[in-house]
Design a protein that fits this description.
The protein folds into 2 domains: 182 residues, 3-Layer(aba) Sandwich (Rossmann fold); 159 residues, 3-Layer(aba) Sandwich (Oxidized Rhodanese, domain 1). By secondary structure, the chain is α/β, with parallel strands linked by helices. It has 10 helices and 14 strands. β12, α9 and β13 form a beta-alpha-beta unit. α2 packs across α3.
């Protein structure tokens, strides 16, 4: 659900959760977490993107959007701390970085911030963070592992259920929030002026002046002696042998009723357990099924098992990220900012790409089967391009893909292949904001990585690298077709 930053309204009694994440760090995990929370908190509002109108002050809009929520969930992958921009500067050191603004606003307004660690990410130290975010290092974090996804998400949900609905809190040392509430708050904060008696011990205190003159106080006459206090009459106690008959018969009746009630409880048969227990309302808290327009049914993602025993009810089942053909496996390879050389094209790849996003098999299948908000509110794969960058002979590929065998070749960003790709992508797209997904054989193929970097250097702003490629697509049981 996209949060309209201009919307300062909130429904009473509704928990508002804001999911903060980096598109270049862990977008797939943030998306899966959004679906899990949105399935469980049916009556709540969960936001994971801010939609801004043109010409607005994005700093104020982020403060308004985050400040209207009760809790901020910060999804932190292995590259969350060290992610850099095009100039090589760390993004967290940029005061205008969206993620920094989101978390800093929540910390400044005393909003609950829960760090969520994915892909074996570590919690940053305070000295590794900029000053506005250093208190984040003291927040208790939770790790969501692939093997225990159901259980870990259940623990996070249990913690979110204990978050109280907070009022809009003004930030420290800033204007009250929101701005339009200032007159009402100022009026409410102005105390009524009333006349109060002078405080004892303060010679400078004044009292309200009466409107009528005060008559002189006459000299009081000696007070008369107080009258004798009358002695209350002594009431004689009723003898034990004179209980009224109505009271006696009433007590006997109560005793009979009590005895009958005890006998009824003792002789009542034990309830017989129902041999067909009623199914728990799991469907109301699981991810919605795939739309009927999907070309093929993807295999159901396996749920994590052997969760540790706990005294509270088991968490509702949620989806689990499936690591098809090592598409999520971290081989410990650092990302490159230049094109990979030809002799390393078939080696292991990194888990992220600078300047672009990584998309998983299920997210790509969803985006191809329906209009999806994965690429932003104004773009979708209905107007995007799917590019097969695998070189070599003709092969079976993803339906609808355009085969550009030279797009992922090694070289430089000024060679003939770069100029050729610029022309080819110009025929497939409408503008530089068109989403493009590149793929090749799999997580041990650099051709799609090279093609993605080439497109990024051409100025395309929505470049997605499908790291799993054809191997993951086939492992998920999704259809393939012959390349043209």
């Amino acid at each position: 659900m996209t949060l309209d930053a201009a919307d300062g309204q909130r429904r009473p009694g509704v928990l508002r959760i804001f999911i903060s994440y980096r598109r270049q760090d862990a977008p797939s995990y943030a998306r899966e977490l959004y679906h899990a929370l949105n399935s469980h908190f049916k009556d709540s509002q969960i936001f994971w993107d801010i939609k801004m109108e043109l010409g607005v002050d994005f700093v104020k809009e982020i403060e308004r959007a985050v400040g209207s929520c009760d809790v901020l969930v910060a999804v932190m992958g292995p590259n969350w701390l060290r992610m850099t921009d095009e100039s090589g500067q760390r993004r967290l050191d940029d005061p205008s970085d969206f993620v920094r603004l989101e978390i800093a606003t929540a910390l400044d307004r005393n909003i609950r911030v829960i760090p969520v660690l994915v892909q074996s990410a570590n919690m940053p130290y305070a000295n590794d963070l900029p000053a506005p975010l250093q208190s984040l290092a003291r927040r208790q974090a939770i790790e969501l592992s692939d093997k225990r996804w159901d259980y870990d998400v259940g623990e996070l949900i249990a913690s979110l259920e204990r978050v109280p609905f907070q009022k809009l809190v003004p930030p420290t040392g800033r204007e009250p929030f929101p701005v339009e509430d200032q007159p009402a708050r100022a009026a409410a904060a102005t105390p009524a002026v009333t006349a109060t008696p002078a405080t004892a011990g303060h010679s400078t205190a004044t009292t309200a002046v009466p409107t009528q003159p005060i008559a002189p106080t006459p000299t009081p006459a000696p007070a008369p002696a107080p009258p004798p206090v009358p002695t209350p009459p002594v009431i004689a106690a009723r003898s034990s042998g004179s209980i009224p008959a109505p009271m006696l018969f009433g007590g006997i009746a109560l005793m009979v009723v009590a005895i009958l009630a005890v006998l009824l409880v003792i002789t009542r048969p034990a309830p017989t357990p129902d041999p067909t227990p009623t199914a728990a309302p799991v469907a109301a808290s699981t991810r919605a099924p795939a739309p009927t327009s999907r070309p093929t049914q993807a295999p159901t993602r396996a749920a994590a098992t052997n969760a540790p025993a706990t005294t509270r009810p088991a968490p509702t089942p949620t989806v689990v990220l499936t690591n098809y053909a090592d598409e999520l496996t971290d081989f410990g390879v650092a990302p490159l900012f230049n094109l990979q050389t030809q002799d390393r094209i078939g080696s292991a790849t990194p888990t992220w790409i600078p300047g672009g996003d990584v998309i998983t098999t299920m997210d790509l299948a969803d985006a191809l089967s329906q209009s999806s908000d994965l690429f932003g509110s104004s773009t979708s794969m209905e107007v995007g391009a799917l590019v097969d960058a695998l070189g070599g002979p003709a092969h079976r590929s993803i339906p609808g893909a355009h085969w550009l065998p030279d797009a992922g070749s090694s070289g430089s960003f000024n060679d003939a292949e770069q100029q050729s790709l610029d022309s080819q992508l110009g025929d497939l797209t409408t503008d530089l904001d068109t989403p493009i997904v590149f793929f090749c054989q799999g997580s041990r193929c650099w051709e799609s990585y090279n093609a993605s970097l080439r497109a990024i250097h051409l100025g395309y702003t929505h470049v997605w690298w499908y790291r799993g490629g054809l191997s993951a697509w086939q492992a998920a049981g999704l259809p393939l077709t012959n390349t043209p």
